[in-house]
């Protein structure tokens, strides 16, 4: 990677934080490597936002060790110019125009006029708001508002991006371009940490962390998570005499069940497709890859 | 962290842009004070509730004197001679005077306020009538002669106007600032600032700078209205008066920022009005002189910024005082008030986050 040799962008060991009697972070440990896209998944209240707020120094931890871009979190204030933080609140001024909102944030980070103009036109292009430059932010649609908020977060080209649900309300086509942009940032050595509810987005990240009750329930690349959950692809078969076929396949060592008139075969080894087809000769078939969603549901049930 | 003036400027510019676009707030800033001034102006151009009456008693009218002394509205000042009374009426210290002597009763009245003159004349007549009734058959009260004196025409509005000017600016700046900060918090920008190179000090400074430009505008319009429409004198420099108002406005801004920490919504900010604004109106000495504020609560008068702003504005407008004349205690107190709440507001922003 471009940031070869660099330590993790975020390093957390056994961090905990309680609000009153509620333990929101419960001994969380995670390393987020530099220069990748990392997705933090988890249900509401699993501690994702609390983790991000702790990483930018907005919360005092009860215990544990946390460092950001190589500095203990207590010193994170010194490197705020290298961090881009996008909260679930949009942090925009509805009574300023799109351009004025961006100028404001550019000013906070002390960009020169030239830098500002260049990046503004790049980012407006990326979030597809170039035509709305002069419009009041308050007059934008929900998705546009969200995109503007992202553009404002990126204006100072931070080394570490912490984005709390950045794609909410953004249509699929634009979401695609967001991800292309995030991946380009990662290629440039920037670290992009994203929280999301959307599993299909998580699959686009280099690494995924699944949080539950203030801890990391599973962590790794999407492929690793799938194998950790022990999920195999499923072969769906349409044929007559489903019960008999399922019994035959199971007896031959290919565990099969019948659901809604379709025979589902767990494909532990992809190369066995031919043998299965030879055994039952279906009218039609389809191979279904397992999803992260299924993996997480499974992992959540196991614990 | 050293304050970055560029960043302060960035915040100030943004505040100005926002206010500029918010037509209703602009309307409030410019026209609400005018409406208020006009309202106060007409309401107060008339009579006073506490009539200052001089009394020179050379004997012979015990009953008449008793009657006048028993009227609760009057503040009676006992004087030695008619010339004292005349002088004090001329200086607008007294609204009128009654001279009692065995030869008769003479009434001196301030010609500038007919209602007050009429009230005094009526009171004297009533007292004389009692005397006549009591002394039935003996010699009467003697002739009553009335003389008008054209003193300086100092209406209530003249004394109150300068203070109202301060009040209006204080009120609107406080409300606008508190709401602006509530919004920063609600829309998440405050949290974003916390994770940016912008320090709390720079942020509050930027607000003070941005808002002050509007306070200047506001003080200019209100100053114009009180002087042009209501003839309140402006003997001192308008710039000095505006400086007092801007300093007061800066104090109101940081106070609003400070109190925004205790409100969750714009709605709750409005509820601060009776708590924060009303005491200032009551205790600042605009309507009732500080001397009439009960001693137990008088210390409160002396910690409220409007008390000093009202005093300074009166001094500048009515007496033509310069900056050095109002430096102590007024400007000093206003400056101190600003600093205390500037610090408090900056520190509260920090606590919010921890």
> Rg of chain B, please?
26 Å
The average pLDDT score of chain B comes to 82
What would you call the shape of chain B?
elongated
Which sheet architecture does the biggest sheet of chain B show?
A: 5 strands, mixed
Largest β-sheet summary of chain A = 6 strands, mixed
Number of continuous helical runs of chain A: 10
| Poorly predicted tracts of residues of chain B | none
List descriptors.
heterodimer, A: 303 residues, alpha/beta, Rossmann fold, Alpha-Beta Plaits, 2 domains, six-stranded mixed β-sheet, four-stranded antiparallel β-sheet, 14 strands, 34% helix, globular, disordered N terminus, B: 354 residues, abc type-2 transporter like fold, five-stranded mixed β-sheet, 14 helices, 9% strand, elongated
Give a written overview of the molecule.
The complex is a heterodimer of chains A (303) and B (354). With 303 residues, chain A is an alpha/beta fold. Chain A has two domains: 10-228, P-loop containing nucleotide triphosphate hydrolases (Rossmann fold), CATH 3.40.50.300; 234-293, 2-Layer Sandwich (Alpha-Beta Plaits). Chain A is 34% helix and 27% strand. In chain A, the strands form three sheets. A six-stranded mixed β-sheet of chain A has the order 6-7-8-3-9-10, with helices on both faces. In chain A, helix 2 runs parallel beside helix 4 and helix 7 (222-228) packs across helix 10. Chain A is globular, with a radius of gyration of 23 Å. The model of chain A is unreliable at 1-5 (pLDDT under 50). Chain B is of the alpha/beta class and 354 residues long. Helix content of chain B is 66%, strand content 9%. Chain B has 14 helices and five strands. Chain B has helices at 5-21, 23-44, 62-69, 82-90, 114-134, 156-186, 189-194, 200-228, 238-259, 266-270, 272-283, 298-301, 305-319, 323-353, and strands at residues 51-57, 74-78, 96-101, 104-110, 144-149. In chain B, strand 3 (96-101) and strand 4 (104-110) form a beta hairpin. The two termini of chain B are 19 Å apart. The interface between A and B is medium-sized, with 26 and 25 residues.
């Amino acid at each position: 990677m471009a940031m070869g040799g660099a330590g993790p962008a975020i390093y957390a060991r056994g961090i905990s934080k309680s609000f009153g009697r509620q333990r929101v972070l419960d001994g969380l440990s995670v390393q987020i490597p530099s220069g990748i896209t990392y997705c933090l998944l988890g249900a509401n209240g699993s501690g994702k936002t609390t983790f991000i707020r702790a990483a930018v120094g907005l919360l005092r931890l009860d215990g544990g060790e946390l460092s950001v871009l190589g500095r203990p979190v207590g010193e994170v204030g010194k490197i705020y110019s290298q961090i881009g933080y996008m909260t679930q609140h949009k942090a925009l001024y509805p009574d300023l125009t799109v351009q004025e909102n961006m100028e404001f944030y550019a000013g906070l980070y002390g960009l020169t006029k030239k830098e500002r103009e260049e990046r503004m036109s790049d980012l407006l292009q990326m979030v597809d708001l170039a035509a709305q430059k002069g419009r009041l932010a308050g007059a934008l649609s929900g998705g546009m508002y969200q995109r503007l908020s992202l553009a404002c977060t990126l204006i100072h080209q931070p080394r570490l991006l912490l984005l709390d649900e950045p794609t909410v309300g953004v249509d699929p086509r634009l979401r695609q371009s967001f991800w292309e942009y995030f991946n380009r940032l990662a290629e440039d050595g920037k670290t992009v940490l994203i929280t999301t509810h959307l599993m299909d987005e998580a699959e686009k990240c280099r690494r995924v962390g699944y949080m539950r009750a203030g801890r990391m329930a599973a962590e790794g690349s999407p492929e690793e998570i799938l194998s950790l959950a022990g999920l195999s692809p499923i072969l769906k078969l349409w044929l007559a005499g489903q019960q008999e076929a399922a019994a035959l396949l199971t007896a031959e060592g290919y565990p099969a069940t019948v659901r809604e008139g379709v025979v589902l075969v767990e494909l532990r080894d992809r190369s066995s497709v031919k043998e299965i087809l030879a055994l039952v000769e279906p009218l039609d078939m389809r191979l279904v890859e397992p999803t992260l969603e299924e993996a997480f549901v499974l992992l959540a049930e196991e614990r | 962290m050293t304050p970055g003036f560029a960043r302060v400027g960035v915040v100030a510019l943004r505040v100005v842009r926002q206010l500029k676009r918010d037509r209703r707030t602009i309307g409030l800033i410019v026209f609400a004070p005018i409406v208020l001034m006009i309202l106060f102006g007409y309401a107060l151009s008339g009579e006073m509730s506490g009539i200052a009456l001089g009394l020179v008693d050379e004997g012979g009218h015990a009953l008449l004197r008793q009657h006048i002394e028993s009227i609760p509205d009057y503040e009676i000042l006992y004087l030695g001679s008619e010339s004292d009374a005349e002088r004090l009426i001329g200086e607008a210290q007294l609204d009128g005077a009654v001279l009692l002597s065995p030869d008769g009763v003479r009434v001196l009245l301030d010609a500038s306020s007919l209602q007050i003159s009429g009230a005094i004349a009526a009171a004297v007549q009533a007292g004389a009538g009692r005397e006549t009734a009591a002394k039935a058959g003996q010699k009467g009260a003697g002739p009553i002669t009335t003389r008008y004196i054209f003193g300086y025409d100092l209406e209530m509005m003249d004394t109150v106007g300068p203070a109202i000017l301060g009040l209006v600016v204080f009120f609107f700046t406080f409300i606008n600032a508190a709401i602006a900060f509530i919004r920063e918090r609600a829309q998440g920008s405050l949290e974003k600032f916390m994770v940016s190179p912008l320090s709390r000090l720079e942020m509050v400074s930027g607000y003070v700078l941005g808002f002050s430009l509007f306070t200047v505008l506001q003080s200019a319009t209100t100053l114009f209205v009180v002087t042009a429409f209501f003839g309140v004198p402006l003997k001192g420099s308008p710039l000095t008066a505006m400086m007092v108002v801007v300093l007061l406005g800066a104090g109101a801004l940081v106070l609003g920022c400070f109190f925004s920490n205790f409100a969750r919504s714009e709605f709750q900010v409005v509820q601060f009005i009776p708590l924060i604004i009303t005491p200032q109106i009551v205790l600042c000495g605009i309507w009732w002189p500080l001397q009439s504020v009960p001693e137990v609560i008088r210390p409160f008068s002396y910690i409220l910024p409007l008390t000093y702003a009202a005093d300074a504005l009166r001094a500048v407008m009515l007496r033509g005082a310069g900056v050095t004349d109002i430096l102590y205690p007024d400007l000093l107190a206003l400056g101190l008030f600003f600093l205390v709440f500037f610090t408090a507001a900056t520190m509260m922003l920090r606590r919010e986050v921890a």
